[in-house]
Structures are given as C-alpha cells and as structure tokens.
Amino acid sequence: MIRDVLRMGDPRLLEVAKPVEAFGTPELLALITDMRDTMAHLDGAGLAAPQIGVGLRVVIFGVHSNPRYPDAEEVPDTVLVNPILTPIGSDQEDGWEGCLSVPGMRGVVPRYRQLRYRGFDAYGAEIDRTVTGFHGRVVQHECDHLDGILYPMRIRNLANFGFVDVLFPNQDIRDD
Ligand code: NI
C-alpha cells in the first residue's frame, strides 16, 4: 500500500527509531511492502520507515540504470534492518542529495567515501558490505533518517541548497 511520506517539519522525522526485535513477522513484511510500494510510486532511490511514520530501524534502497540518469551508479535493491555503519577512513566527498521528505529540493552534502555496513534482511539473514561512492551515499542518507537526521542538517554551505528546477534547469530530474 502506498503511504503518505512525512515532510520536513514533522517532528516524527526527528525521532530516534527503535530496533526491530522480531524478523519475518507479518507486521515487518507488511511494513516493507508498504515502503517498497511508496518508494516505487515516488520513483525514489531509498526510503526509511520513519518517513512513513513508523519509528523502526528499517531502510530500503536501490537504484537501477535509467536512461534519464545515465551517470547514476547502480545500487542493489536492499532491505536493511537494524543497520550499523562503520566509516573506513576519514575521507569525505561532497555530492548532491534529495529526499522524499524534502520534495523539490537538492543540497550538497559531505559523506564518507567508503564504509562498511552491516544489518539484517527482513528474515534476519545477515548483510555485510563494504561500499564506496553513490552506494555509500545512499546508505548514509537513509540510515541518518533512523537517527532523526535530514540531509539539510548536514549541508555545510547553504549556498549549495535550492530548488531542483532552478539549480538544474532543462534537466529532467525526479522530484525527491
Ligand atoms: Ni531521505
């Protein structure tokens, strides 16, 4: 079921989400189905449970090749529960981000260049990956939602924050 996505300003987006305690339950699977439906409907790259008003440590993400975004790196479709992120090194790089909770806007956000992430899928199977670049950026963005952090809070120079149609005129960029 497609759910409403909370927008920045809603206090629920600022809460720290709670760990999932039971895997493979009908409730957890229904939550993930709703998150997938909602993300697909809005053509998003990722979604965190708090964005649909559920305060649990669950994120989903995935990016596939799309002629509209020939330069976008692919990211495997992933359900990640109770994630733990560990940066590798201290290198950060700037990149443009958007968010379904901040529609129509983009900002330049620093993220760790390389990190390891661990967690579980919907059924409790372990996930353990070391990633870089855009994949790592997506994971860091989504997991921030579990700690009540929205990407505008991480923008270092607010001159690099604006409306997507003004920043990138003549480009067909999705509104997330
Ligand atoms: Ni977001």
Brief descriptors of the model:
3-stranded antiparallel sheet, 176 residues, alpha+beta, single chain
Please give the structural blueprint.
Layout (H helix, E strand, L loop, with lengths): L25 H16 L4 E3 L9 E6 L11 E13 L4 E6 L7 E8 L1 E7 L5 E7 H14 L14 E3 H4 L9
Antiparallel strand pairs: 1-2, 2-3, 3-6, 4-5, 5-8, 6-7
The structure holds nickel (II) ion (NI).
Structural notes for this entry:
The structure is a single chain. With 176 residues, this protein is α+β, with helices and mostly antiparallel strands. β6 and β7 (126-132) form a beta hairpin. The protein has helices spanning 26-41, 133-146, 164-167, and strands at 46-48, 58-63, 75-87, 92-97, 105-112, 114-120, 126-132, 161-163. It is built from three helices and eight strands; from the N terminus they run αβββββββαβα. It has a domain at 11-85 and 113-149: Alpha-Beta Complex (Peptide Deformylase), CATH 3.90.45. It has a five-stranded antiparallel sheet, with helices on both faces. It has a three-stranded antiparallel sheet with strand order 4-5-8.
